[in-house]
Amino acid sequence: MTESSNTLARPHTGRIRAGVVTVVTLSVLTGAGLAPPPAQAATLQARALSVAASKQGDPYRYGAAGPDSFDCSGLTFFAYRQAGTRLPRTAQAQYDSAHHIPRSDRRPGDLVFFHSGRSVYHVAIYAGNDQVWHAPHPGADVRLERIWTDAVWYGRP
């Protein structure tokens, strides 16, 4: 047996390098391979996006905030609440409380505010590829749809 194979065959002495334990532990806990865990904000956004997508097909109902029917701000309110944070209840109040970001910084899970002039009339959750999850209007269901106008602002809770 060579010296190097003898070293490999030695029983574990109980000492483990902290850096190795940290990477392996994070890998197991986050399920993210050897990558570090995602930033808290990104995790919140991903969870909210997942909740909104899970509501596909639920009916629009004015004033509803879930769990089985929604208006536009009710869907965003519900999704972010399930993800672990609170938003105000209406689209305008959600816009007023959000951290406003430029289009170039938008990420999946961000809020998309549709406006006319200075008034917000609709809110959705950005899904990527110029698409949003939203509860569009009476008679429609929660769905994924392409952003249909340039009159939008973006925000992050």
From TrEMBL:
**Pfam families, sorted:** NLPC_P60
User: Which residue numbers delimit the NlpC/P60 domain?
Assistant: 42-157
Question: Has the keyword Hydrolase been applied to this entry?
Answer: yes
Does the entry feature the keyword Nucleotide-binding, yes or no? Answer: no
Listed SUPFAM superfamilies? Cysteine proteinases
Superkingdom field: Bacteria
Q: Which PROSITE patterns match?
A: NLPC_P60 (PS51935)
List the keywords (alphabetical): Hydrolase, Protease, Thiol protease
What family does the database annotate? Belongs to the peptidase C40 family.
Spell out the protein name for this chain.
C40 family peptidase
Organism equals: Streptacidiphilus cavernicola
